[in-house]
């Protein structure tokens, strides 16, 4: 569990302008303008970020906390579960007590589906049911005291598995899609800021090459990492390993200064496949039509 401010800002996240705008309205502005967000304008009890893996959901949550300067509680389901009877419920109650004490605060629960799966699921055991019930009860208490703002942000790659009662409490649901053409170009720029590039590198062409191939933000980051390793791979093919070990410091500096070429990026496209497929996207789009709350 991470507690405290975050250093991630909107500028660190490529694209996703619609999602950023929706999060500002749902989370940031209520903290900055609490007098306005009262009555029918009350802040949402919870916000769900959902979409394919690697699309930036965790980064968005951290940026939200940074933008509205709230205390950020980064929670994984594993930190809230225990094999000992009653421990999970205590952990959840303490979490919300801390969040209220250090308010305004944001509780971010990644992979919330693993904590709040459908009731009656054959894999659900008694401890999970009790923990889920406690979490739902604590979320019902969010917003009771307008002076102690606590926002619950959940993220999932499997929104269709979330329990209906939890889904109702995650009132605002925001789809985080795969990056579009402009987003992909920005991702290439962000990920290569510290690298030396050959003049022939064309991010527009590379981004167009990925159209329709379902590359996520994480996939593109991995692609750039693979391309960045090409200079070392070429050297290792040409140099004896014993010499490489003997002159490691010198060679490291030399290789780091060598520019990455367009050929390196094209090779990386072949090496690094997408982690998302068309069927997954269809499933997300279908769930979005049924349950998303945005205009």
TrEMBL record:
Which Gene Ontology cellular-component terms appear in the entry?
microtubule cytoskeleton
Q: What is this protein called?
A: AAA+ ATPase domain-containing protein
One MF term in the entry's GO annotations: ATP hydrolysis activity
Q: Which organism is it from?
A: Trypanosoma rangeli SC58
Coiled-coil spans are 225-252
Q: Which UniProt keywords apply?
A: ATP-binding, Coiled coil, Nucleotide-binding
Q: Which GO terms describe its biological process?
A: microtubule severing
Please give the superkingdom of this protein's source. Eukaryota
